[in-house]
Amino acid sequence: MKTRKALMVVAVAAASFALAQELDEATVAKGAAFSRRAAAESMVLLKNEGATLPLAQGGKIALYDVTGKYRAGGGGSSDVKAVRVVDIPSGLKEVGFVLDPQSRETAVVVIERASRESHDNSEEWFELSNKERETLAGIKAAGFAKIVVVCNSGHAINLAPLAEDPSVGAILWIWYPGGEGGAAVGDIVSGKVNPSGRLASTLARAVRDWPSDSGFRDYRGAVPYEEDIFVGYRYFETIPGAKEKVVYPFGHGLSYTDFRLQTSDVRSQESEVLVSVRVTNTGKVAGKRSVLCYTSQKGGKAEHPAIELRAYGKTGLLQPGASEELTLSFAKRDLAYFDDEGVSGNPGSWVLDQGEYTVLVGGSVRDVAPAGSFTVAAPEVLETPGFKLRTDTLARRLRADGSYTAVPLAYPTRPGRLGKGKVRKTPMETPSVTLYDVADGKATMDQFLDQMTLKEMLFLCYGHPRVDPNGTGSIGALAKFGISAAQTCDGPAGIRRSIKSTYFPCAALLASSFDPALLREVGTALGTEAAETDFDILLAPGLCIHRHPLCGRNFEYFSEDPLVSGVSAAEYVKGVQSRGVGATLKHFAGNNREATRRFEKDIVSERAFREIYLRGFERAVKEAKPWAIMTAYSGINGYNCGEHYGLVTGILRDEWGFDGVTMTDWWTTVPLWRELAAGNDVKMPSDRGEIDRKAAKEGFGVTLAERAEDADLLTVEAVRTSAARVCRMVMKTLRFAREKAARAESAASAQ
Q1: Residue 421 pLDDT more than 50?
Q2: What is the pTM of this model?
């Protein structure tokens, strides 16, 4: 009992520091200006018949806000207490428009949809409501010269009635644009900003048009991913009869000016393909143009989607007549498929298929032109990592011709076990080595951990009480060892805390910019605010795939495409971590339904999971080296993600080389020992100081060594490995650097 009390005293001492402070005025001003620019450069102009937009500045607008509830962002972890919120009426007035309900010049109709964490959206919300239809009918009857519809939604909507209605001149898709979103709408509508966003996910006519809709509202525990690799545009552009279901395709987006694209060179080198494209503004106003590069493949042994995105880039602001050369590149490794059926003769391998590859350049998947081609004469096995995900047999698996076949392979489950280790039996009152000594190179991590009891190491494998009421807990927090209490907070769209922060556009809108540099700027701004308000680890970004249009968290994820997701997340992470704050990729992996996330277990082929749901994570891990990754509540092929050794250790660590901390999502139901055995380092959180009660209840505390010896389920070495990862992450924080400097100063003063 004495040991338990002492441990809790240590935790309390480690958390005794001030609450986060208000943002500096300069930071507030800079954040607001940037949030406005980021939103405007990401919004997607879907329709603009007869140059409905832009409107003449100073003109009169009759505003019809159907619900009157501007959505700056979604509910849950993205819900930010904003420094300020500019709604659409305020934004239109800010740029000089006169809101006059009696005017018949222009009607601006705002359609809004709520979306939030832990809930999925209903099919009813996908369709226009009776009130929205009645409002539009009344507007048309009133004889307005122009009708503009603004869609402020966290999920897809059936826009076919608007797209096909000749009286509706323009449709602007804005997702959740943050605290400055209304001002950004004003900038677009007035022409102050030329729209340059593009859809990062397909918009179709009906919810049932997505192949993932089968069973989406069936709240059973097992969800079969029968569409396999044919997700999003990969489905709509490949499967016979699916194209007709699309209202606006992936990559669609309009501008107030025109551009000419000229591909000057396609070079197929040993390991990569380079594509040079000259972009010229041939219109009358300045604008930016993103260029999307795709490939299609014929003649291989495996099935492939009809078209796949490989690279993209965006010009700077081009004046009329000006040009810019973009060089896009992609690795030939990106063309490989994971052979889980053995069609190449090498099951469990990444294979570059034989055949002719055509490079296509343009905008949307429907607006591309061939730019060149190259041939792979014979299949090339690039890597054979083997199978890491247990197979649960799918009843059927979609093929490119629209038929379904059974999954033919069964392969091994989780591989291997972790080794044994030693542990100190009694706690040290005063350690001879601190984490400061490890940081200074005076001791090794092994020497440092040799001083800890098993229970002290286990303490590092739990999250601990939060300081800020809206924070999300701390990690570390063993003061006597010099282990700081690193503070975590939600942050996909802003620092979520008890006092105000900048509310940035949601991830799905930012991805629509198709501008990697913009994503890095957003990350840098978020990292700046986190550092300034005394947070160490941002629980963002999320990069799960838009598998179904009504997933309640789609606004918080980037895209239906793994390349867009991976590039966006990597740049976001680089920006955050450039400010000395850690970023956390989530939710690893395959969180595609919110309402049942705590008990859902997806059944999916290893090829589909690796190529669609993991590829974005892989890119972000390898390119940006995030400090942390959060595992999902849901499961894959029989195991919860946080206890899946093949996923967390086999793929993430062994294959990709991730050396950071993995943490669970909040209050998972899987016992800690099973998560630690899989390589998941921290169970979050422990807000009520329940480590002792959990130790007794779950049997991992003082009995852990015996369990490890008897059952070989969890070893002391596994706990020690996770504790070491936590310590290495803590050493990266600004908090640790401050506390280390203060200790050195105190020691110097004492002398």
Answers
A1: no
A2: 0.94
